[in-house]
Amino acid sequence: MKPITNVATALGVIFFGLWLNTASAQTYRPHFIGFLNENSPISVAYGIDESGNAVGSSFYYGGGTDYGTRAVRWEFPNGPLVNLGILGGSNSAAYSINDEGVIAGESDIELGVTQAIRIVDDTIEDLSTGRNLLRSTARGVNSWGAIVGYGVFSEESRSELVRALWWSETTFLNLHNEFGFHPDSESWAFDCDSSENVVGTVRLLDSLRLLPSDGVAYWAKATLFGYDVTLIPMVEDFDFLSRAFGTCDEGFVAGYCSQDPEGTGFRRGFVWSSTTDALINIGVLSGHPTNGASLLYAVNNRGQAVGFDGFDMESSLGIYDPWRGHGLRSLSDLVDPSENLVILTAFDINGSGLIAAWGAWGPPNEPVGVGVVLVPCYADYNEDFVVDSQDYSDFYSDYTSQNIKADINYDGVVSSQDFATFLNYYNAGCD
Known about the structure:
Layout: H1 7-10, E1 15-20, E2 27-32, E3 43-48, E4 54-63, E5 66-74, E6 81-85, E7 92-97, E8 103-110, E9 113-120, E10 123-126, E11 133-141, E12 147-153, E13 163-167, E14 172-174, H2 175-178, E15 186-192, E16 198-206, E17 217-225, E18 229-231, E19 241-247, E20 252-258, E21 267-273, E22 279-281, E23 293-299, E24 305-311, E25 314-320, E26 328-330, E27 341-349, E28 355-361, E29 368-377, H3 389-400, H4 416-428
Parallel strand pairs: 1-25
Antiparallel strand pairs: 1-26, 2-29, 3-4, 4-5, 5-6, 7-8, 8-9, 9-10, 11-12, 12-13, 13-14, 15-16, 16-17, 17-18, 19-20, 20-21, 21-22, 23-24, 24-25, 25-26, 27-28, 28-29
Helix pairs in contact: 3-4
């Protein structure tokens, strides 16, 4: 699942891609998901499965007043891009997909009313049916089809209080009530793993922080909803607010902490381990102001995480590989410049390191916003965008010296298995 960026608004902003790498070197080959309408070239990839199939949204124009965005599904490696449709109104979007092809997202059911949806075999189901929801959205789906998101119930329409929600084939849960959160607080669910652990945010009542507007401040902490509720620790000096957006079956959680109550100012992305309680502050990109901001949307079982790094409106996106030698790097720097692609945001990463992202493609004065799947080229070991004998030489040098960078298979040790894996990559190339 991953949060949304307003594509049309953000196109005018300068962005640079980034990723966080700890060990093995690689560049990325972009696969563009395309557009539903070539004369309206805007699309974005939000979610990705283990095969590289992606979901997202694309601008659509069907003639007359029939226009807006549509949830889309793209088949790896070359498409097609499939229009998943809409329940009503003008807009729909797909945010997450599992390996069985179950998709979570949202759709207008009428103008101005958006509800959570589940898509199976390209057929849309309205998840609000019979559940008394004023509005809702579905943001994450786990390996066996459980879906999480959030919404506002009709009986709470005056207060507009948001509740974390859970859908499965047989069960619908108001997680906010299930875990006994205060009725005047709010909660959001963004992702869940195969063991039914859900990550999100709960907004807690804190009488110790006062705001001039109403005399009480609400602040939020990133939360793991398991059999017990765990409040994830905060990064030092960024302890006013935190949000958790992504998780995986190895128990890693990705999100950010902030210094201000709205979460819009100085931020630090984090990766947290639910098994060891270790918290890693990813910092910011080298050369970026220390009072800037970083944010992580998703994390895989290797501990690689993708997200965003930025200061003011000049922002960067990338991948973070925190558990084996920290390194935060620009994704755009790892895409061949001849592609004319700047990665704007990275939203999801699968277990093999493939990334669902959004980029600005084309001439700098006339870029288009396009969804892209980034495929790592592990054979390009020296990151010069060419696979040649120098890559072999550089890998062999690191391999013989037991440099952790040569841990190609991400098992924490440099062994003959890494050598065999690299040879397979090297012989296959990157095309």
